[in-house]
Specification:
This protein has two domains: 2-98, Rossmann fold (3-Layer(aba) Sandwich); 103-228, Rossmann fold (3-Layer(aba) Sandwich), CATH 3.40.50.720. By secondary structure, the chain is α/β, with parallel strands linked by helices. It is 31% helix and 23% strand. Strand 11 (199-202), helix 7 and strand 12 form a beta-alpha-beta unit. The protein has helices at 16-26, 45-51, 77-82, 100-109, 127-139, 162-167, 211-218, 227-241, and strands spanning 2-8, 32-38, 55-60, 74-75, 87-91, 94-98, 119-123, 142-147, 154-156, 170-173, 199-202, 222-224. The relative contact order is 0.13. It comes from Chitinophaga defluvii. Keywords: Amino-acid biosynthesis, Aromatic amino acid biosynthesis, Oxidoreductase. It holds the Pfam family Shikimate_dh_N. Residues 6-88 form the Shikimate dehydrogenase substrate binding N-terminal domain.
Length: 244
C-alpha cells in the first residue's frame, strides 16, 4: 500500500484528499490512499515520518510551505529559488521538495494572457506570491508587489492610483482576502480604475467568484479563479511522485 497525504494546520479546507480519492476511483488506481495529516507544529514532521513508513509522497499547505525546507534533502530548481515547497517526493531514502503551484499557475494563466498583459500587480507577499512571481519572471511579465504595509520592493494598496492601475493590466490575488467564510472581503483596490483591458486572477477557489473577481467582472475585466490551478498542481504532484 502506497500512502500519500497532505500536511498543514488546520486542514478543514483541504481540497486534496477528495481530489485524490476521486482520481484513484476514476482511474482504477489500486493500493494507494491519500490522507490528511494535520500537524500542529512543523516539529511534528519527523514523528509523522516514523509513524507512516509507507509514505510515498506528500503535499504541503499553509503554514508549512517554507518551514518544511530544513527537513528536506534536496530541492527542485523552482523550489530552491522560491524557497517554498508544496510537494515532497520520497525516493531512495531521500526527501525532495518541489513547487507544483508554479506548474498549476502557469498552465492555467497562459490561455488568458493577451499581448498587452506586460505588467502585473501581485497582491500579497507570502509563499503563494513567490510561486506567482517565479512564473511571471519566466514569462517576462514585470510585476509590483502590493501589501497593506510598504517595504523594500512592495507598495501599499493606498498608493495605487489610476495611472498605476492602467499600467498594470494583470492583477493576481495571492492573499486570503475573500476566502470562505469571509466572502464579503476583497483587496482594497481602486476598482473603479479597472477596464476591459484587465485580467484578474484569484488563487482562491472557494467561493468560485470572490468579491475581488465580481468587482473586476463588473468593470468588464476578464476573471479567473484558482480551481484549475489547484487541479493542475495536484496532477503535477502525482506525476512527480510516480516519475521513475
Amino acid at each position: 500500500m502506497k500512502v500519500y497525504g497532505l500536511i498543514g494546520y488546520p486542514l478543514s479546507h483541504s481540497f486534496s484528499k477528495g481530489f485524490f480519492a476521486e482520481k484513484f476511483q476514476r482511474e482504477g488506481i489500486q493500493q494507494c490512499v491519500y490522507e490528511n495529516f494535520p500537524i500542529p507544529t512543523i516539529a511534528d514532521f519527523p514523528g509523522l515520518l516514523q509513524a507512516q513508513p509507507q509514505l510515498s509522497g506528500l503535499n504541503v499547505t499553509i503554514p508549512y510551505k517554507e518551514a518544511i525546507l530544513p527537513f528536506l534533502d534536496e530541492l527542485s530548481p523552482a523550489a530552491a529559488k522560491i524557497k517554498a515547497v508544496n510537494c515532497i517526493r520520497f525516493h531512495d531514502g531521500r526527501k525532495t521538495g518541489y513547487n507544483t503551484d508554479v506548474i498549476g499557475f502557469k498552465k492555467s494563466l497562459l490561455p488568458f494572457l493577451q499581448p498587452h498583459h506586460t505588467r502585473a500587480l501581485v497582491l500579497g507577499t507570502g509563499g503563494a506570491a513567490k510561486a506567482v512571481m517565479y512564473v511571471l519572471e519566466e514569462l517576462g511579465i514585470a510585476y509590483t508587489l502590493v501589501s497593506r504595509t510598504a517595504a523594500d520592493g512592495v507598495v501599499t494598496y493606498a498608493s495605487l492610483d489610476a495611472a498605476m492601475m492602467a499600467a498594470h493590466t494583470l492583477i493576481v490575488n495571492t492573499s486570503p482576502l475573500g476566502m470562505y467564510p469571509d466572502v464579503d472581503k476583497a483587496p482594497p483596490l481602486p476598482y473603479e480604475c479597472l477596464s476591459s483591458q484587465h485580467l484578474l486572477y484569484d488563487l482562491i477557489y472557494n467561493p468560485e467568484k470572490t468579491l475581488f473577481l465580481q468587482k473586476g467582472a463588473a468593470r468588464g475585466a476578464a476573471v479567473k479563479n484558482g480551481h484549475e490551478m489547484l487541479i493542475l498542481q495536484a496532477e503535477a504532484s502525482w506525476d512527480i511522485w510516480n516519475d521513475q
